[in-house]
């Protein structure tokens, strides 16, 4: 069932996917911060929570989907 964990190619791809997710998260944080600079503090906080929560949920669903395809 978990035999893919012992394959070097799968581990390299998992590392690559994790690295890309980290970079995309940092990029998303920078973009949302720049785009919400002009909002007042309360609205900015709401936008940040919705943005980061939504992207976390979407990326988790995509990763689960990729796992199911494997």
> Helical segment tally?
2
Shape descriptor: elongated
Give the C-alpha Rg. Answer: 16 Å
Largest sheet: none
Fraction of residues in β-strands: under 5%
Report the count of strand segments.
Answer: 0
Our measurement of the CA-to-CA distance between the termini, rounded to an integer number of angstroms, reads 11 Å
Give the overall average pLDDT. 85
Question: What can you tell me about this protein's structure?
Answer:
- This protein is an all-alpha fold and 70 residues long.
- 81% of the residues lie in helices and 0% in strands.
- The chain has two helices and no strands.
- It has helices at residues 8-35, 41-69.
Blueprint of the fold:
Blueprint (H helix, E strand, L loop, with lengths): L7 H28 L5 H29 L1
Helix pairs in contact: 1-2
List keywords for this structure.
single chain; 70 residues; mainly alpha; 2 helices; 0% strand; elongated
In short:
The protein is mostly helical and 70 residues long. The chain is built from two helices and no strands.
């Amino acid at each position: 069932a978990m035999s893919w964990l012992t394959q070097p190619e799968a581990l390299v791809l998992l590392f690559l996917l994790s690295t890309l997710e980290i970079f995309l998260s940092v990029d998303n944080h920078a973009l949302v911060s720049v785009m919400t600079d002009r909002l007042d503090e309360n609205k900015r906080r709401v936008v940040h929570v919705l943005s980061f929560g939504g992207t976390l949920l979407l990326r988790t669903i995509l990763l689960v989907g990729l796992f199911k395809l494997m």
